[in-house]
Predict the 3D structure of the following.
Amino acid sequence: MPTELEELVGFIAHPNPQIRKLATENLVPYSTEQPAIFKTEELRPVKHLKFLIRDHPLTLDVDPLQDPAEANANLLAMLLANMAKWDGLKSVATRKQDSPEALKSNELVLNQLLDLFVKGADGTYNKDADFDYLAYVFADLSKHPEIRQFFITKQDYDDVVPINKIKVFTEHKSDIRRKGVASTIKNVAFDVPAHPAFLDEDQINILPYLLLPITGNEEYDDEETMGMLPDLQLLPPDKQRDADPNIVQTHVETLTLLTTTRKGRELMRNINVYPIIRETHLHVNDDGVREACERLVQVLMRDEAEPGVEEVTEEDEDDRIVEV
């Protein structure tokens, strides 16, 4: 005899769309806690979830998601985040549609999603939604070169480089938003020709947004402090490092990517990145973080005249950390 939860899963395929909707909303928490319930009968429940897409067409016109009165906007953002794992969704890079007047974006769907993510944070666009899960959409899409190119290209309609819109969320209160943004920045950093813009204070200036989240309230000597970026010199005594070790690891790995060029390595030495990584290694009890810190330190402490540090090109494998 099926359990109540198994019966609820069966309602995903109910003929009434309102019942399908209600069942799906109530099943969302179980997708991570008890994923096995969706894998019965040769994944039949997963196939039935396609009904949700039929009920709320997400053919990337994205209209329901952008409706300020849409009560299920966060659920739609979660669905889009799952769809973004499909490589075919990278076609969004060129997809266009009319932008809602309330959003004040342009016709490119990617810009609309990005503006929705920024303007909709904390319920400011839609009182029922924060759009945090769009961070996961950007993270998955940015694995594709054409999407990475979008994030580093200044947009004509607002004269802003898209990655500059999301970098400000590396210390946001939402774990989902911080994690997705961290992964997006790391993916875009695989584009080595963009590194000068990443490091330039007048362009992307990414380093403060990577270093602040991994910096705690440790004390440094005067010489170390004076050499750091201004943003890191006068931190409050209650400054806390990001509590999620996965996010800390991602930021350290992004810093390592930005040492691919000699200019990047020299800049990080000049602004005393090493003491921050030293303290991160010391205070974060996580093997992944410590290994990432050790890889970065090996690069920063190595003599440039010593063989073994190689410049890489854009053609190198996109989904790996540079091994040193």
